[in-house]
What we know:
Elements lengths: L4 H6 L3 H17 L4 E5 L2 E6 L2 E8 L3 E5 L1 H15 L2 E2 L4 E4 L6 H14 L10
Antiparallel strand pairs: 1-2, 2-3, 3-4, 4-6, 5-6
Amino acid sequence: MEVFEEYLASLKTVEHRVRMEEVFTWIKSTFPTLMPVIKWNQPMFTDHDTFIIGFSAAKNHMSVAPEQAGMNHVLEDIEQAGHDHTKELVRFKWKEPIDYELLEKMIQFNILDKADCPTFWRK
């Protein structure tokens, strides 16, 4: 995905770059109407100019941020899967498989919940 090329190239660990690229490709394939964008130096996907999900890379994990409402919607799934998390994001460890089922739930929820949202973030 061209819009993410510079961000991905900035990642020092090749495996992290490849993993994030796989996730971004999966999202674009699964949710073709979402727009890939970079805001605040972070890769994100939007729908009608409203935030749906964002990502960042750290040494030991990929952070996935669907906003707090998105986290609350899947909190039980996150805890049952044993993923480390905060109120705003879930951490997918590089050494573990990506939880695509959880990602799909987060994204689907935000698309539906924010269908009429006129702003980038929820108010």
